Amino acid sequence: MRLLYSALSPFARKVRIVAHENGFTDAIMLETVAPFTDESLRATNPLSQVPTLILDDGEILFDSSVICDHLDAEGGAGLIPAGGRDRLRALTLQALADGMGSAAVAVVRERMRPEDDQRPELIARQTAAIVAGLDLLESEGLANDRWAIAEIAVAAQLAYFDARKVLGWRDGRPALSAWFEAASRREAMVVTSAPLT
Ligand SMILES: N[C@@H](CCC(=O)N[C@@H](CS)C(=O)NCC(=O)O)C(=O)O
């Protein structure tokens, strides 16, 4: 399999963690792509987004949730509940984390524009989504003894917030901060933290 990815993409990080937990690290060839500037990616994924997974038989998978679904089904780690309310809850939390990530990427992209061209209302709206998501995670709480798709998705995004200095999110959120500190020590987080080539 070939994974088209960028080292800082939180969505690609989530996929790499799920791949690691399912024992696929050696089976996946990582190929760095710059999704915002490399138009050749569009021939593989019309959305020109990473992560994009190309299976050995040529089948192309995106987005990150579909790739995770496939890897977990094939690898059998059981990170995605098979059915019932557990599944709905896990997928909804993954969607929350991914949505916060999309908002964060939008903020980072906006901040890259010349200061005079930046749209404060766009940054404010995207930041509001991130803040509300963080508050929900703080009040609902994440279990330290659970490490499945929802927790992996959240950890990948929190790490991105730090790496890109999207916002200071720890103040007023002691539970989420402590949870993330413990999550960051997990092997899958450590081995996916450095840019891989
Ligand atoms: N919903 C997608 C989001 C992926 C995404 O936004 N990736 C960013 C990099 S972090 C990207 O490739 N953006 C390029 C673009 O949207 O043009 C997923 O979960 O895979």
Query: How many DSSP helices?
Result: 7
CATH fold title of the largest domain: Glutathione S-transferase Yfyf (Class Pi), Chain A, domain 2
Helicity range of the residues?
Answer: 40-55%
Distance between the termini: 15 Å
Instruction: Identify the overall geometry.
Output: globular
* Poorly predicted runs of 5 or more residues: none
The number of distinct structural domains comes to 2
Number of strands: 4
Q: Cofactors and ligands present?
A: glutathione
**Given the helix and strand composition, which structural class is it?**
alpha+beta
CATH class descriptor name of the largest domain = Mainly Alpha
How big a fraction of the residues is strand? 5-15%
For the biggest β-sheet, the strand order reads 2-1-3-4
Order of helices and strands: EHEEEHHHHHH
Largest sheet: 4 strands, mixed
What is the name of the CATH architecture of the largest domain? Answer: Up-down Bundle
Mean pLDDT: 96
How large, in whole angstroms, is the Cα Rg? 17 Å
Keywords summarizing the entry:
197 residues, alpha+beta, Glutathione S-transferase Yfyf (Class Pi), Chain A, domain 2, binds glutathione
